[in-house]
Structures are given as C-alpha cells and as structure tokens.
Amino acid sequence: MLFINIQFHCKHVAVPGTFNNVIKTPGRGRKEKSEVRRLLKKETLVLDLRIVLLGQTGSGKSVAGNTILGREAFEESVTKHCEMKRGEVEGRNISVIDTPGLNNPSLTEKQLKTEMEKAISLSAPGPHVFLLVIWLETFTNEEHEIAKQIKELFGEDALKFTMVLFTGREKMSKSQWKDFVQNAETQELVCDCGDFWHVINSKAEISPTQITELLQKIENMVERNNGQHRTNERCQRREKERIRQEEEKQRREEERKREMEEVRRREVERRMEEERMREEERRRELERRREEERRRQDERRRKLERKREDERRREDERRRDFF
C-alpha cells in the first residue's frame, strides 16, 4: 500500500495508522514499509484477544473472521445466529464472534437484541473490540447511523471499543478511495469510533501484512483503553437474569423430579402395602381353610370313633344275649 497525509477534524486523538493520517496514493512506499516494520516489532499487549464482528447483512463479517483466524471457521452465508470460533494467530489466542447483520430482515428487533446479548456472553468477560465490517462497494451515507445503533445495542461507551474495518479496497481506484475518505459521512463514522479504522482487500486479495496491521491496531485500541475489555452492565444484568432464570428453571425442574420421584415412591409403597395386605389375606384364608379342614377331619374322626364305639356296644349286647 502507498499513503499520503490527510487531515480530519475528529475530536479524538489520532494514533499512528488511523484515519486522520493516511489514504492511498503514490509517493510514500518507504515510510509505509517502515510503519509496517514498526508494527511487526511492537511487543504483543494482548495474548487472549476477543473480537465481536458487527455489520450489515452481506458486509463480509464471516469472511473477515475467517481471514483473521487464517482458516474457514465460519460459513460464508447469511449469519442468523451468533457463533464463536477460536484460533492462535501470531502468538495470540483469538476468539472471534460472528453475529447476524444489524439489518437482518429475518430477525425482529427483540431477536436481534437477544443475539447481541449472546455475543457479549460468548465473549465473556467481554470483547476487546467490536470490529465494524463495511464492504466499500455497498457503503451508503445512511450507514453512518450504524454507530447510533451500536450505542443503542451495547451502551453509550461502546464506540470506545469499536474499530471500522473497510473491505474490498482493491475495488476502488485511488481517486475513488480519496473521495470516499474525504466524504463527510465516512469521516463522521470513523471519528465516532475514536478514529480507529483499517482497510483490507477482498478475500482473494488479502495479504498477511494487512491482518498483522489490523491486529496491531486492535492492540493500539486496547492500549488506549488501558488494557480493558468492553463490559455492558445492561447485558450483564440481563445475562445474570437469564442465568438466574435458568437456575430457577433447573431448580423447579429438579423439584418437579423430586416430587415425581416421591409420588412414584409412594405409589410403589402403596402397591407394596396392598400386595402385603393381599398376601396377608391369602395367608389368613389359607389358615382358615386349614383350620376348617382340621375341624372336618376331627369331626370325621369323632364320628368314626362314635361309630366304632356303637359297633362295640352292639357287639357286646349280642354276646350277652347269646349266653
């Protein structure tokens, strides 16, 4: 890349390589290479880096995520749900969270907010940077309103942690790029994001140096934010509430299971008691029958004895009559 100076009236303090320093044009190849070498030599500040990708539908968020991780981690289609992938890049452990487009027509406002809260949860304890991906060929002046949408979704200070990533640089001529950079809406968007920005080519044209520079600029942002990551109290409260509700749901489910187990236990005990009673009844019935059988046998025995006794008496009488 080749650069020349250009001035912007951002309220934020510029850092090397940011939007109020450079645009593409011939004449400063040596200085640009020197800047790249400086970035490459700079000590890595963040070893565990968490990046949340934001942008409109079709802006190339998934492509950017794959490029940063150096592999096909995300499916390059319309993203409907948040997804996190990890990888090691240039000595850093990087977590990249892909998100649905901020203008995704298939999501309601409530669903979009839920997905953004999920993105914060996936990046716990919080992202170091919201990387706002913008495809240069589809950028419109209205797109600067996206900064307002980010603040509505993540809080007023979210832009402190937001960097603009323009993609598809090689699709523009030098004069088109210069006009784009000088566009008031472009400047406003970049200045809203603390003058942190980066530009890369399309997927097939991206060079490793562009990713190295991007990661170093992210570290510059982290350094400016005193090494802190983004925390969203509202999202954290909602996440805590979600966790509380999940725990309450689990507690109720466990209580329901215990109650069901108790019901089953009591049912088993009831059936066992009924079976015991039936068994006791059968035992008593058996004893009753045995007792009746003994009485009948006793009765038959007594009858037989009486019969024998009667027989003996008759025999005795016959004998006496005979003599």
From TrEMBL:
Compositionally skewed regions (Basic and acidic residues) per UniProt: 230-323
GTP-binding is among the record's keywords: yes
Keyword line: GTP-binding, Nucleotide-binding
GO molecular function, one term: GTP binding
Chain residue ranges for the region called Disordered: 222-323
Family, per entry: Belongs to the TRAFAC class TrmE-Era-EngA-EngB-Septin-like GTPase superfamily. AIG1/Toc34/Toc159-like paraseptin GTPase family. IAN subfamily.
The protein's name in its UniProt record: GTPase IMAP family member 7-like
Residues covered by the AIG1-type G domain: 46-239
SUPFAM superfamilies xrefs: P-loop containing nucleoside triphosphate hydrolases
InterPro entries: G_AIG1, GIMA/IAN/Toc, P-loop_NTPase
